[in-house]
Structure formats: structure tokens, C-alpha cells
Amino acid sequence: MNWETVIGLEIHAQLATKSKIFSGASTAYGAEPNRQACPVDLGLPGVLPVLNGEVVRMAVKFGLAVGARIAPRSVFARKNYFYPDLPKGYQISQYELPLVEGGHLDIDLEDGTTKRVGITRAHLEEDAGKSLHEDFHGMTGIDLNRAGTPLVEIVSEPDMRSPREAVAYMKKLHTLVRYLGICDGNMQEGSFRCDANVSVRPEGQAEFGTRAEIKNLNSFRFVERALEYEVERQIDLIESGGEVVQETRLYDVERGETRSMRTKEEANDYRYFPDPDLLPLVVEPAFVEEVRATLPELPDEKRDRFIERYGLPAYDASVLTTTREMADFYEATVKAAGGAAKRAANWVMGDFLGALNKDGLDLQDSPVGSEALGTLVARIEDETVSGRSAKEVFEAMWAGEGDPDAIIEAKGLKQVTDTGAIEAVVDQVIAENPQQLEQYRGGKTKLLGFFVGQVMKLSGGKANPQQVNALLKKKLDG
Amino acid sequence: MAERSTDTIHEKTVAESSKALRAGEISSRELTEACLRRIERLDPKLNSLITITAERALAAADAADDRLRGGDAGPMTGVPIVHKDIFCADGVRTTCGSRMLDPFVAPYSATVVERLEAAGAVMLGKANMDEFAMGSSNETSHFGPVRNPWDPETVPGGSSGGSAAAVAARLAPAATGTDTGGSIRQPAALSGVCGLKPTYGRVSRWGMIAFASSLDQAGPFARTAEDLALMLGAMAGFDPKDSTSVDREVPDYTEGLGGTLRGVRVGVPAEFFGKGLESGVRGLVESALAELEGLGAELVEISLPNMELALPAYYVIAPAEASSNLARYDGVRFGHRCSDPKSLEDLYKRSRAEGFGDEVKRRILVGTYALSAGYYDAYYLKAQKVRRLIADDFTRALEKVDLIAGPTSPTVAFGLGERADDPVQMYLSDIYTLAVNLAGLPALSVPCGFLGGRPAGLQLIGGYFDEARLLNAAHNYQQVTDWHRRAPEGFE
Amino acid sequence: MALGRDEVLAIAHLARIGIDDESVEGYARDLSEILSFVEQMNAVDTDGVEPMAHPLDAVQRLRSDGVTESDRREHYQKVAPAVEAGLYLVPRVVE
Question: Which residues of chain A have pLDDT under 50?
Fold first, then answer.
């Protein structure tokens, strides 16, 4: 039997605010335990939450970017359960009335088509703290620095049909939230986390199979592996006569498998009810329009514009728009290169990204800026340097030896384009190789390459190859 | 002469103390020391205070005296008060009447505490109360019951029983309390003092330990309406730390006092005089209504048809919110922790079983049930709909009248232990007060006589933010009555 | 609504309140009495009535995004029953 995979994702993105969603404590990552946990975060007796306006602005920005409806009135509820990283014994989260409803995201599939994935809702909530399981005399340590960090939980429709599609969706969302500047996307630090709902059904069947929820997938690679494993597990299970149980499973990175999180499946009863400490969140249309006006050019729009305006292939345009910073860098490079868009793209995606990767650097830490790289591209364009010499110039730039013009000068890499000078060399080479000249003229025209090589060698690589070619041909054939 | 003045110093109301302080006739230190001596001597009979903050009080009194000398004094500067032990005061043990918080020294202060401190009021100590404000008799306190100064064999009412008893016994001229279903007004009535529950949102809830967040409101106790006005003026105001605090100017509540009641329409709801109302109390309340009429008010019969449903709706909503508000007491970050927990579940279950008393547990269980899957609609949602009907009843009534009047509680103080084993019987004590919390309206209780030596209270209910009108009506009433001038025997 | 023993224990578990065996019956009786009493609400028809979550007909106020709290860990942990290395300790949590 052929099986169809059905995947829906719940993505938690930490919003990049300075302070927490309901308190004035810092959200900065990496502080010592509990140094960023104030009375509100600790759930001390008598404390009260007050909503951070920036959180609302960011969530609205997200909603607009995915074409969703911004609810004019949304409500914060309490999700009640006991856990040591949840100080109040409840999590404040939007439940029945979320802020963002009904959007979508288009993902590019490998066959070159695009697919629209529905976004059911995106709601605001507070993050929990962390349990540290290092041994404190057999105890667990609780750090509440993360408690109260704002999260937007983005729930997709069960629209994805393979682990690859799921990863494509997740990557696209990751790109989007960073474009919008609402999340730093740092997956190692847990700023962008994913839970996946997976089920399988016989191809052609309308109703969904029983799903399993896989928790806390914190890298693209793990998402793909965990989903592949889980799909396989469910198919094997059903084909061997078993049944999929609705449960929460955890991906075990070391073993590369998912396993059930609870031995005793306890039905959770979260007893949601509207949080009486908070009033309904009302978002006025004027506010929505104000936020809309601040929306940056989105990844898809930017990619299309790159194709249109710079004449780039779709692949190049996609790579160059992966992050806003990369796209900005590229555009600045093109400008400095006097508009040589395709050559600039080759250089950014080739030597430049290669060097960054090799040194493990982020774009903002690059020793070569867009202005310098663009200048180098311009020098190739105006034939000051040959493409081959340019690589040498770039290496020197990367090593911090100065701007391209200074390096070209210092290393004497300037192309010789003076016809008289080239002609002199050409004449010399012809004069010094009478035998080859005879053979050439006897029909062995392949020897042209030999003459070009000799001229280039004698000119120290600086002679313009096109000119050399033309002159040689003229003289040899003459 | 000086000696005589300290002997009677405790008799002064807030307004009288304030006047004497500013005239330099007495110092805050004298006043504070007199109150502390009185507490030491008399409170063992009452158990109205859980913690006495003598040292801090004297320091605050000296600071107040400096302000008074410097001419930088407001009406509350130098006036001693007690705080219900539900308000966090930085560095002071704050128990909420519970074993759960017996070891809890608050690391920050409630806005109410800060505002009164800023106004120069002197905190003498923290008043006893029903555990987590759940009770109508002050018998659920982990620190033992409070006795009613008028009759030590009876309860002072609750949950702010300690605050009411302390003011009745003249241990302090004023106190703070909180009112979720009647917890200021009912003990005020049973203890023979004045108590005001302001409009929901008028006074900040920051630092006030939550019972039922959509109902809780802080307010003052004192012997006169004028004193309530002074206290409320210091307590009220917008607080950015409380999302439910209302950003609205605080009037000078003393300004309108003494204005005539002529033409003021006072609604008398038939539902407040039905079965369940003790006939003696009915008589006293009717006399009080006649006094109001004598002062020029016009009595209008009104109806609040859904009043009967207030009690059931309240006993769903309040426990539901409480079950969630009290989940934070888990033995992890503060408060009682069981010894040697074997597992996380053991830590939770034993810490909470040991830390909470019976009534608190009962309400947490009821609230948990009301919110649980399958019952939410039948209980919680239903109660919220009934709440709307009740609020609408008041809105309609207050279109026709300026104030609503009736009894505060159906009976006078009952005996200690008399209702302790019957939760529902106990709940009936708040039958006339809790509808007001459901609607979020302001209301006060003013002493209106005695029945067998036990005080009764007249309840006045106003429209939203109409505290000034309520206070004026009570003030007028107190100008023609002297119930509030009487002192319990042994506490003169 | 009369609550049985198992129901009381299930609710108590949800609320994480330990109840010893001999008190279960008492709680069952009290809770049943309270519940049947609150069921008086059913006497009124509330079809179409909008639930009232809050006495104020107001909307949520927004705070500006600024860090206003400083590190006072030692102060806040003075009231904690068990801390080590700045962490609150609980019995081992197994996942």
C-alpha cells in the first residue's frame, strides 16, 4: 500500500523584545541562573502582569507578513498545570481568541513548483523557565530567566506531505521572522523551536490518521530526521497490524529515533479560562496600518525583484535573499560594481561566501565589505584586472592587505591593454619560435594556444587575453 | 494635662488625629506609642494582629514628625494604621493568614502599602484574617480566630476580621482590608465600624495577595465616613503595575462631605429584605432608612431580580479564580515546603496539603472542578452569564436611583465555631454583599445600631466611581446618629 | 451533583493537593453540597447572555518595552526553601 504523510508544525518563535512579555525583566540570553527573574517572573504572591506593547506590534507584523487576519479583540487565558519551570502554576497564553488567524506561506519545492501552506493561527504566550538536570544531590535545578520571555506560537495547517516540505516550511518561516526583525532565529539558544504533528494515511483516504506530536525539534536537520523516522515507524506499525497512539514523543538525537514521553499517558486537563489579571487586547485598525507601513520588503518580493531587476537566475536570487543582511550586502556590492549584477552575484555566492564559510564567520564580521568587493568586480568589468588576477586580489583583501586598487598596484596585477606593448611581446614570441610558426602556418592552428601561453607568460599574466588572442591571430595568419 | 491627652489619644478618629498632629498638639510618636501600648495590653484578648511592627512604626512616626515640622504633611501623615496581612510589605512577614506563608517575608511592597507610606501613615502591624481571605468569620486563619471586641464569644466577621476588630477596639483609628465578596463590609458591620469597598479598579491590586482577581478590591476601615474618605484618598489611584487599575482622577473625597441628601434617591431592593434576614437587623436597617429619609433622601422601591443567584455564581467564580491563583504555592520558590519530598508530585501534594487549611482546600477543589473539562460550560461559563445578569440588574436600578441601601449582613455577629462546620451556612453571611463584587460597584457599611449588644450595619451601594456620594450619605447619617461613637466594653 | 470518592481524588490530583484516606468522604460530602447549591444557577435561562469575565468594560493597557528590573536574585531567594548555585531545587524531574 502507498502511504501519504501528513505533517503540521507548531513553531515557537521568541520575540526579540528587550523586556519580557509581562514584566520589565531583561530577555537577554546567557545570564547566570535567576538573575533575570523578577517578582512577576517568579510568580511571587501579589504580582500582576502588564502586557508589553512591542510584543503586540511584532505579532501584528508577523500576521500581516503572512496575509493573516489581525483579530480586533483577542484574549489571554490561563493554561493551568503544575511543573517546576512554570512558576505560577499556569501559563498565560491566548486560547480561544488568538491575535493572528488564517494566513499562509508559500514554499518552493524541489521540482521547481511552489506550494501554499496554511497558517491556522499565531498567538502570544509566555515562555517557561528551564530545568537543569545536572546532579544537585539527586535534585533538579530550576532557572527562571527564560520564564516570561515572549513567544509567538505559529500553528500551521496539516498541509505538508513530506519531511522535506516540513523543513522547507520551517526554513521559510525562519527566514521570514528574521526579515521582520521579530526573532533572532537562534535555534541553539532556543529562540526558534518546533513541535511537529505527524500522521500517515493510505493514499487517497480523506480522513487523517492518528497523529503523534514530536516535541522540541531544535534544528532543521533534526526535524527532517525525526520526521523521517516517525513516518517510517508509523507505517511499519500499521503494516504489522498495530495502531498509532495519539501521544507526545521526544526525538532522541543520539539514537536518531523518537520515543514516547510518558509511560502513563495522563490526559491533561488544562482548565483554560480568561486571565482575570489581564483585559481583552484590542488592536485598532489604525495601529494595524501603522505596523503595515513598517513592513520591510519580504523574502519572496525581494527574490522576485532580484530576478527582474538584476536578471539573476531564480537560484541565485533565492540564495542572495536568504537573509536581509545578505540581500543588502549583495545590492551594495552591485552598486559599488557599477551595476555588474551577474558578476557581483557570482563573486558574492562564490569566493566571498566560500571565504566566510571557510573561516566560520558571519556576514557582519567579514573582513571584506560590500564597497571593496564591488570595486573589485568593477575592476574586472573595466578590464583593469583579469578574472584570474582578481582571485589573487580578493585573497589579499581577505587577508587585510588593503583596498583592491592598492593591492592591484602593489602586486603589479594591472592588465596590460596597451596594444603597442602587447604587440612587442607578440612579435618577440613569434621571432623566438620559428619552428612553431612554421608548423602553425602549415595548418597546425591548434598551436595558437601555445603562442598565447608564451605571450601571457612573458607578460607576467598581465596582458589582456582577448587582445593577445586577436593580435596573435592577425600576425600568425598574416 | 499631657498625661490626660495620651490617655484618650486612641479615641481620636483619623480626622481628629490629623488635625491635632498638624496643629502640633500631639506628635506622631506619642500617638504611635499610645497605639502600640494599647495593642500590647488589649490585643491578646482579640488576636487581631498577626505581626506587630513596633520598631518600624516608631521610625515611621519620627519621620512623620519631621514632615509635620517641615510643613510637608498631608492628612494621613503621622496617623497610625494597620494593614490586613494580605498586603506585601517589603521586609515584613506577610502570611495571608496561612501556614503556607508563615515563613514568607515579602521582598517587595504592595502599592497600597507604598501609597500609605508615602502619605506618611504609620504601619503598626499586620492584621489577622481568614486564610487567603476565604471566610466570613476569621476562623480559618492559621493564626487562630479573632474575637469580636463587642462580645469575645462571637466572631468579628471576615475575611478582614483583624482589621475590623482592631479599629473597633481602638487599637488603630484606621485599617486596610480587602473585599472579594463582602470581606470589608461584613466584618465592618459585625464589628460596628465603617468599611468601604471601592469600585473595582479604583485601588491597585499590585502586591495584594490574590484570592479572586476579578472580584478582589482593597479598601479602608475606620470609625467614620470622613475617615474612610481620608484613607481612600491616600489608597486610590492609577497604578501602571496593575492592568486592571483605572486611569481616572482621584477626587478629594472629603470635599463633598456635608452636602445635603435632599433629593437623593435611595433604592430599597425588595430582595434584600426577604427570608434569611434576621428580624432585629431588619428593624435596625429600616430605622436607618427612615433616618436617611429624614435627611431629605427619597426612598424608592426597586428590584434586583437575579439577586438570589449571586451566591451560587460567586461560589463558582471565586473558587475557580482562586484555584488558579493559588497554584503558585508549590513549595519551590517561597512558602511552606514539606520535609524530605520523595518526588515532584510528593513535593506538590504534601506541601499544599500541609500549607493550606480546610476551607482553602475546599475552594481550590471546587474551583478546579468548575474549570475542568466537561464542566466548564455548566459551571464557570454559566456563572459568568449569571454575573452579567446581576450586573445588568444593578445598572438598570441605578438608572432610577442614586444609591441602593439595605442590610450589610443578614445577622449580627454569630458565635465562634457556630458555623465552622457548615460551609454553605457560612456563605449565607455574605448574601447581600457579594453581588456588588460581581458587578464591581462601590459599597460601604456604616454602623446602624445594636442587637443584644452586637452591632449591625447599613449597606450603601453606589454607581461606578461614585464613592464620594456614598461617603457623603454615610457622613450625613453619622451626623444624626451616634452608633459609631460607642466603644465596646473594655476597649473604651 | 454528588461527587464520589474517585472523583474527589481525581480533582485533588489535578490541584496537587494530597488528601488522606479518612478525609476523602468529608470532602466528597462538602463538595457535593456546594455543587448542588451552586446549581441553583440553572434556574435562570442564560441563552444569548454574554459571559462577563470582568467588571470593567475596559481594554488591556500596553507597557513600553523597557528593562526596568535589576538583578535582585539574592534578595528574592532569601524566601526560597531550597536553592543552590542560584537555582531553585526540586526533586529530580524525569523526562
Answer: 263-265
